[in-house]
Batch of 2 targets.
Target 1
Amino acid sequence: MMIKPRLLYQSHQANRRLSFQERTLALSLPIWSERSVRRQLGSQKVKAKKHQIFVPRSAQVSSPLVTHETTETDDSFKVKAIVNVKLAKAGFLSSLSLDRRIDDIIDLLGKSLLLELVSSQLDSETGEEKVTMEAYAHKGKRREEWVEYVADFQVPKDFGEVGAVLVENEHHHEMYVDTILLHGFPHQDPIPIHCASWVHSKFHNPTKRVFFTDKRLYRGKWRFGRNRSYIPSETPGGLKRYREEELRNLRGNGEGEMKSFERIYDFDVYNDIGDPDKSLHLQRPPLGGRQRPYPRRCRTGRPPSDADPVAEKRVGRFYVPRDECFSEVKELTFSTKTLHSVLLILLPTLGRVIRDKDLPFSYFHDIDSLFSIGLDLPHSENLEQEKGLLSAVVPRLVRPINNDSSPSSPPRDILRFECPETINRDRFFWFRDEEFARQTVAGLNPFSITLVTEWPLRSKLDPDIYGPQESAITSEIIDKEIGGLLTAEQAVEQKKLFILDYHDLLLPYVSKVRKLKGTTLYGSRTLFFLTPAGTLRPLAIELTRPPMDGKGQWKQVFTPDWHSTDVWLWRLAKAHVLAHDSGYHQLVSHWLRTHCVTEPYIISTNRQLSEMHPIYRLLHPHFRYTLEINALAREALINAEGTIESSFSPGKYSIELSSAAYDLQWRFDMESLPADLIRRGMAVEDPFQPHGLRLTIQDYPFANDGLLLWDAIKQWVTDYVNHYYPDPVLVATDQELQSWWTEIRTVGHADKKEEPWWPRLQTPKDLIGILSTIIWITSGHHAAVNFGQYAYGGYFPNRPTIARTKMPTEDPSPKEWEKFIKKPERELLKCFPSQLQATRVMAVLDILSTHSPDEEYIGEKMEPSWGEDPVIKAAFERFRERLKKLEGIIDERNRNSKLKNRNGAGILPYELLKPFSKPGVTAMGVPCSISI
Ligand SMILES: [Fe+2]
């Protein structure tokens, strides 16, 4: 649906007198372009000679200083609009393009942008929309990267308040419009409209863009500001149609392939992970649907694959709506750019350096050399450009090194990793059991540790397929490991027994994963005991293989023992569990529960909530760059044979496993921090405690810091929602809000739409709960699992992503057993990721852990629309103060020697939920959004 306001008046712009000397401008153009230029110039006199276009000077408007004949009269006043356009960094070639030169002519003609002012009020007599005012904007001043376009209007005095500006871009290229300033309206001068958006060329799409002014009645006075916030029922009459049409434009018609300039937000299933047209072994089943439930992604509309009609072709760029991608305007995409370079250039280069992709590290000091010596990147004529690019884009990883023996030779590029802070502090941190346990509450994946509430442990899987359900971890084993302090039953009763349970989730995948080359899998259970010191101690690991290949179920319990054989078996079992935890962390705690589930929230927010809606304004900062980074993940991270598939234990079933976790475990109502802690038995409700919760492990750094952050978010959201919904009934009657929540539940998360646990949205309290959860996921939850990835995973023996060999005790041949007995260290290194897998993952983790220089941290930046409203401004300032205080509290906690899970010799303090950070790899800082 196009926005086509009824136009009765024209501004005087078209008839104004222009006083400058007559001359012509000649531009050289290919002959085939002349028709296009003539079309632009309309009836203007144009001469063409030898592929040159001569534009009469009388047809040009080149200076904003020209006096326009708009005057103040009894029934009208003059208004000047200044549009600030930021020049795109499109590069030299682009600036020489034909369309650019035609656009230059258009600028000279003074018809660069067509603006229309829209009154927010209806005509008092007819009850219909007032006539819009239209004028062309011409090119004005240029300052570095900015260009002003200026338009003059003669506005009738009965026009009323301006509510919106429609913009039509007459150029052949899109333009990034940052602001529009309207000078001359009586109530405020100027009226700023902050657009911060790409405006497509009218030749791509004739629909005009609408930008709403921000004006609201506050305590009897009109207040202007960046973007108005109106719930739908309060929308001024003159803007209602524009509000609805803009949303229809953003929703699109569900047809066709998306083009790069479009702003359409729509849904689709994950059917572009595989690439069957390239090779049938890259075919992957679509995720999303009854068989493999999954959240929906942003629709790209590419044609179906030739080889597999349910898959989408992987051709061209992965579309994201235009305003989700700012790369040509600012250096805002530091993170995505660097990740893009690492995934698409560095990782393939590594494949050329380490040709045997299965080659293990021979010695531990070979791993250390990645931090001290590094890897020579190949020197090849056709790689020169890539090499220079890498050292420029990822200088932390790739550095040029001069050849000392031959100074005249060109410098070599070396991939050398920074030493992670964990290993800087304690070289053997990864080896210690207490550190293994500590990281379950203060490490990279604090979302898995769960209280044991039933004893003995039993599987819920079908015994006919997976074998006996009873765990091999018996009371006797636990009694012995606890050392007489308590019996297993007493430990359960007293809430002292905890588990990392990857048994029922992984066991169904064991048989098929074991058919893949270079990997293996078990179901696993790891038990921990909460010591009187408040720390966890690992007690036992159980690894299980289901019946397969004619063999019965195999399971074995490993314990931290004193005999050398048992010690090495324990280390190997730990490597398996760590690989399970690494996979679960990356695929579920990180990808699924933050990046993936948030995509439907973003799509629905843009499709159903007008940008004037206060809830759109609240959520918008929390969605920055997420669609773009998720598209990049589909392109090169979670795709068939991408980094995840080639480096994690489940191999090509990795992403499918996140679908299983979504199916079995994910519930929106359990995603808030308090609900998540209660669900895992890590907290119980207690109204007398500060957060209304009593933690099962008192010193649980993630939970302790997270609850302060959660409370701060919830209070801010409460203040915000209560301000805009003073009457509770307004939530239930807000049609946009209701459509938003319905679409999230039934379309974005379509495979879960029948679930009874979805929160209702009837009251401000319901809305506060929903919004706090979404904001927590995009900020605190994501930061907790993202920015410590290099600190904890950079030295991969601490968190191997894959365990490649089975345990030496599982049906060993005499030769296999002898090899283990003779050289157990070698067997551990063979079980760890290969050299290629390890270095690839290290490079990716380094980038994923990096804060870009333009990172926006939670509570840091006051959105202009919030600053315009004194109540919201004050609430945000209180929020910011709370977060600043949280910084100090976390520092204080890390200094407290009684808190042994975050303070001790060689221990990395827990800072992942400290709100602010400097750029780089810091293992702290909570950005507003999932931007990497
Ligand atoms: Fe992330």
Target 2
Amino acid sequence: MENSKTCKKNHYQMLLILLLFACALLLMTLVSILLWGGLTPVRSTGTLSLVVRKRRDQADTMIITLSLPWYKRLPPAKPGQYLAIEAPVSNGSAPLMRCYSLARWQASPRQYQLAIKREPNGKVSNWLLDHVHQGRVIRSRVPAGHFVLSEQHDQIVLVAGGVGITPVLAMLDQLRSRRTPPKSVVFFHAARTVEQLLWFDELQNWARAIDWLDYRPCLSRPHAEWPGLRGHLDRDKLATALSGWSSAALYQCASPPLMQTVEQAARSLALPGGIDVMQEAFGVAGEGSGQWFTVNAYGKQVVVQGGLSLLGELEGQVEFPDASCRAGECGGCRIRIEHGETMQLKRPQCAIDPHYVLACCTTANSDLAISLN
Ligand code: FES
């Protein structure tokens, strides 16, 4: 009897030891996964494979949240920077690439957020809207770009047109986390309808809670009860918001015509300390004619539309192996204009020789003949 009791006791002790051993093994596995996959940062250059964690749609725009597998640490991004996303639009050809400004990136829980809008001629944007879903892996370059918020300014005007809100939202996130808050920030968000005002509720809540933030959405096609600004942004709206300001830093991400109007209006206010202007115009059509032109590219005839970037129009037919930024920064889309007229959509950020243009910053204004180098 005594022997049987001792035997049972030993049996339970063995089971307990085995259980503890299994728990320790599990814990060690979890810790090693975290150390290997979670704490090691990826290189700050090169290409990322990002998992789509969430997708939310609003009007004609999708907002996606991305992270690395195992929620590995992401390369940091400055507010205003973008991701160049690859899209395998057609089988057998090299993927096309487009830049999308980061709306947010968070060190924890290690996520990027982008908003991508369906566009009438948006080969890549429309493909992404049709093919990206939760769980899909997409490839991008690490965050890049020079349109970033400076620490120096504390009287700031932010202007976004539609989905151009993304870099502005990232800037607002950073301003909210500053130890010393800015003196005043006015944010004009221009859109057609209230449905196109992304992050509208969140921004209204921020504006209620933050005394330095003045949020002014402006609708060109408002519904009857819309209480906010109506029509287009103009000098009067700017003058009212900036009344009493000594100087301003203007950051804008919108269509070139809107940015030009706002810049002229802001300069005409003649603030005593002047105005610094920083702007971004990804993937937006310029003021081109909208006409169709023929581009002779190394013996190939390609039809392009005036007002859209030559890079976007020629891609798929002409190889641009070194074009990566799509923002006039890398110089990889440099082409020589042999014949015809072009129009600049965006000021290049890198040096280029006379007779050359950056295809990502330029649109056709007549039939063209071009060559690479
Ligand atoms: S793609 Fe980089 S400058 Fe045009």
